[in-house]
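R.M. (postdoc): so does anyone remember the format we settled on? I'll just put the structure tokens first.
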């Protein structure tokens, strides 16, 4: 199945932590224009989303035809939608185009593959736009890794962090201790900054190491990804302030979606373990 992605920043297609919206419109076989029913659906969507913002558009074909002909058809389908939208809905300023190549469908003639999907955010989500896009990119990277928790490796915690990172494989996940924030905010407390200093030293000494900083929150079942992302970003910013190159640092927030203990927690210790910051080494 040929897919052409119109997108911002970089090529990615992954489930994101924030709830961006999506809508799909379906084409007849080998057609680059929508039939009347789908045109009506598109017009209704446009009229209901004049204040939304388009993040990405993906065009698809079924498995019929050659790779090149499917690529051309996908582009034509996306182009048809862009012309129909006719700037009635705004796009991000860095909206670009790219071809992702061919992906096989299970069926030769699959009507559900003959579509264009629009990913977008509503006006009330605009203040989360940075985190939505960031999570797109970072979650795609995480999906490619075989992650090992440091606790599973049974190494002595008495070893220096430098030595530990020599003994652990790439994609090892570390839970940090004592990374504390002001209540319901992303402001790092002084004790949290002190506890990050060993990572500052490591990153200065081992300049090939690249990491993803992962934020989690506790206590509430709602998916407050924004707070956890802001906290992870605060750790990233602190490391940058200490002279670590931003190119080596990424971040993501999981809200309360990946707790170590069930929510609501039974005690303060469980809440503390859920309200954590982790570092995932992605290159070394």
């Amino acid at each position: 199945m040929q897919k052409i992605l119109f997108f911002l920043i970089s090529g990615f297609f992954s489930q994101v932590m924030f709830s961006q919206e999506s809508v799909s419109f379906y084409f007849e076989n080998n057609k680059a224009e929508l039939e009347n029913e789908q045109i009506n659906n598109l017009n209704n969507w446009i009229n209901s989303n004049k204040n939304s913002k388009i993040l990405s558009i993906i065009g698809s074909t079924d498995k019929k035809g050659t790779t090149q002909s499917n690529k051309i058809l996908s582009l034509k389908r996306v182009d048809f939608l862009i012309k129909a939208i006719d700037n009635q809905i705004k796009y991000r300023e860095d909206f670009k185009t790219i071809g992702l190549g061919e992906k096989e469908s299970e069926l030769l003639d699959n009507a559900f593959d003959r579509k264009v999907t629009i990913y977008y955010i509503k006006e009330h989500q605009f203040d989360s736009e940075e985190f939505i896009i960031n999570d797109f990119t970072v979650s795609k990277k995480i999906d490619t890794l075989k992650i090992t928790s440091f606790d599973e490796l049974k190494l002595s915690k008495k070893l220096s962090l430098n030595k530990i990172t020599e003994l652990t494989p790439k994609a090892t996940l570390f839970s940090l201790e004592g990374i504390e924030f002001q209540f319901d905010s992303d402001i790092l407390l002084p004790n949290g900054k002190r506890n990050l200093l060993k990572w500052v030293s490591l990153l200065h000494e081992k300049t090939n190491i690249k990491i993803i900083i992962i934020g989690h929150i506790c206590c509430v079942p709602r998916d407050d990804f924004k707070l956890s992302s802001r906290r992870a970003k605060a750790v990233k910013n602190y490391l940058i302030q200490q002279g670590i190159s931003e190119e080596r640092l990424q971040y993501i927030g999981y809200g309360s979606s990946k707790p170590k203990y069930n929510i609501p927690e039974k005690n303060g210790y469980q809440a503390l373990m859920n309200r954590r910051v982790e570092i995932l080494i992605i290159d070394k």
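R.M.: ...and that's the designed sequence above, right after the tokens. Also worth knowing: The longest helix spans residues 67-85. Confidence is low (pLDDT under 50) at residues 7-17, 98-107.
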